């Protein structure tokens, strides 16, 4: 009978609310340790600090939940070192995050046969000075006609940066004049032009965390606090399965434990349009009703990774996906096969058993926590950081009420079958 301690670290930026919820439930859930077979594990949790480090400096963490890698290079290099030298498990794979931008994700999923809309990339309108710039452009940059490209794609379409997020630099283009205007204004940013999936009857944001997927009905036209709609059971089984398979395929392909995949439904087909979001919004002010799901999913997956010494997949290993892509199966059959790889890589059945056997108390603890003063205070802290003073009471109440609705509609029934 061995007893040892697993260390979990949170690598955080401006996050306020979700770490408070995560930490509170983590502590309650692991207070007496978790017994797995002959071993008992205690769990320690702390926030990772930013400091100088030697390559030889050992890393004590077993698992790090990282929210900084996509923009803070020091932490990213520390994490990559820790994976290489200390067998750290981190979500998400930092090499994949660093190198696979939106545009690469479009290419990969198109290759696997998913209906990604027609997408073009343009050379930038302007450049920062660099030594070889002029010689390169004079020799190789071909003049091109924006009008011709616009006609080929067909209006309307979207101009959007080939990487990044937060709607930065995204413009809907309805005609050639707007195309010229948007391109002239795009500066040094490298842009994609992507055929619009319009009209569509559904816009769904699918949040994946390990093998867990939540479908959120999304309204991009609403103010930030209403974009994630509170609907549940708005998709039939077939659509749910398609979106789940699609999300898990994308996440397994890129080694992303935590990512969100946006898909639009047109004529019964789901078109993924934005699925390189490997640091998904986790704030209570955006997720509100869905916030408890995210916290629970995050706890389950991180504890599973820590308790079972889940090995970090350092390389992407794409050939098994390509083998299926090149088979003569139908697109839907291929998706089912990709999802099987995803389930294997995410160890879905082992994870389900772990949740059922080791995390039995989570439902009840979460139900209580999401009705607690501590949660109310965490919401208030986040609201105070984002909203003007005169709106603090109103929005704290709004998000609190939505979470209470979750407790009534979902929380008190718990998660069937493990997760
Ligand atoms: N091909 C498309 N068809 C229809 N709408 C689109 C398309 N591409 C982008 N949009 C619209 O533009 C919005 C922003 O585009 P996109 O999601 O690609 O950018 P983003 O900066 O990553 O946004 P976010 O951070 O919210 O995910 C989408 O939420 C959607 O409303
Ligand atoms: Mg998006």
UniProtKB/TrEMBL annotation:
UniProt entry tagged with the keyword Nucleotide-binding: yes
* Residues of the ATP-grasp domain: 106-178
Keywords, ordered alphabetically: ATP-binding, Nucleotide-binding
Q: Which GO terms describe its molecular function?
A: ATP binding; metal ion binding
State the organism of origin. Answer: Aliiruegeria lutimaris
What is the top-level taxon of the source organism?
A: Bacteria
Name of this protein: ATP-grasp domain-containing protein
The record's InterPro entries line, in alphabetical order, gives:
ATP-grasp, ATP_grasp_subdomain_1
